[in-house]
Amino acid sequence: MRRPARVAVVGGGVAGLAAAVRLRDRAPEGTEITVYERSGALGGKLRTGELAGQPVEFGAESFLMRDPAGGESAAVALVRRLGLADRIVHPTVGRAALAVDGELRPVPAGTLVGVPGDLAAVSTVARPDAAADRDEGRPLLGPDEDVSVGALVRARLGGEVVDRLVDPMLGGVYAGRADDLSLTATMPALARAARVEHTLVGAVRAAQAAAPRAPGAPVFGTLVGGLGTLVEAAARVSGATIRRDATVRELHPTPAGWRLTIGPTRDPEHVEVDAVVLAVPARAAARLLAGPAPELAGTVGRLDYASVALVTLALPEPRLPELSGFLVPGTEGLLVKASTFFTTKWGHLRRPDGLALVRASVGRYGEEEQLQRPDEDLAATVHRELSAVVGSPLPAPVAGHVQRWGGALPQYAPGHVDRVASVRAALRASHPTLALAGAGYDGVGIPVCVRSGETAADEIITALGGSGT
Fold first, then answer.
1. Alpha helices in 3-144, H assignment, sequence order
2. Which of 31, 257, 261, 429 has the least C-beta neighbours within 10 A?
């Protein structure tokens, strides 16, 4: 009688948990699934805490409701699978602003991550160089070409559009610079259009037309009780054995599958499994690949990461604008790069006592020294800068929290998508029962990470079925 397959999921973030749920749903009955998480907490960048007596996100705040094709996002599908659909809520205030020249100006509508399809629409924030975006009789990009977002937009629309619009919007997601980030990795729809269209404005319009959004349809959602409820439900529904504080230090192929070395050097534990999903950041994955695929480890390990800190303050009855929050261009010289007015943006978080929860994101790629400040210094600087941006002194916080995320956000250099594709192709050929998943490969955001984990699980299921396991 054939024994059940054993699958190890290394990494208990949302990608790893999504992989575990998919394995439970689609792998043969009896498949043994074990999730190894090096820390004491599951969820990765999904972390719901408590401040001033109510739940608050110390990591990812929300998820996209729709996928790029207009259908339900992978995050929403997972929420439904976990029986949490009745907990989905949407922002009650969606308007955001940019802090430009010392004042808050509305984020222009109709852009694609800050890149405009209508130049007049962004005139309150930046002055595009319309003459530079001329039709030269050929597509903006070649069939396999990738460039940085900043290089393309600067050449076509000028520096102000990059510095005042694109950079803060990309920075809010990646904590990186538009001049360093891959167009194909961060804005795939625009990259596809740029391989057909002859102008950048035309490419933006084509990309927007290819992914129409129903008027009034919510863009973002979160869960009442916090995204930690998704983490808990995924762990439970997966039926996986959860191993916390279990660092996988080595990975080696065996005739029947894989051997994992877990725990401290002096007293290691060895576990043999049939297949492995590596749902860890790129550098951790590179260390584990160094044994079975050293040539691929070097490619995977090239990916760099930015570190950030999230400073959340509980403010008694502050005078805040009716905004969901604001973004800050790097040219403004502030430590804060983005802020969210939680209790304004999310109606279910509003309190009858008027206490407001405000979160600021601190840290840009290449400026990690700013994060070396003590928590108290970061919180005081955030409070001072928020007061300056909103135009009036904010009351002293009654509570605060500083969450540091070291090496949290991938910095996709041009060519990233092709590099990942080549690594995965090589793994399929040499080690088909080993799959990569997570933000280090496929993009940031909960839906992308969920889909990445599910795809990795599907590959493992196919490989195990093909091998007769």
1. 14-26, 74-81
2. 429
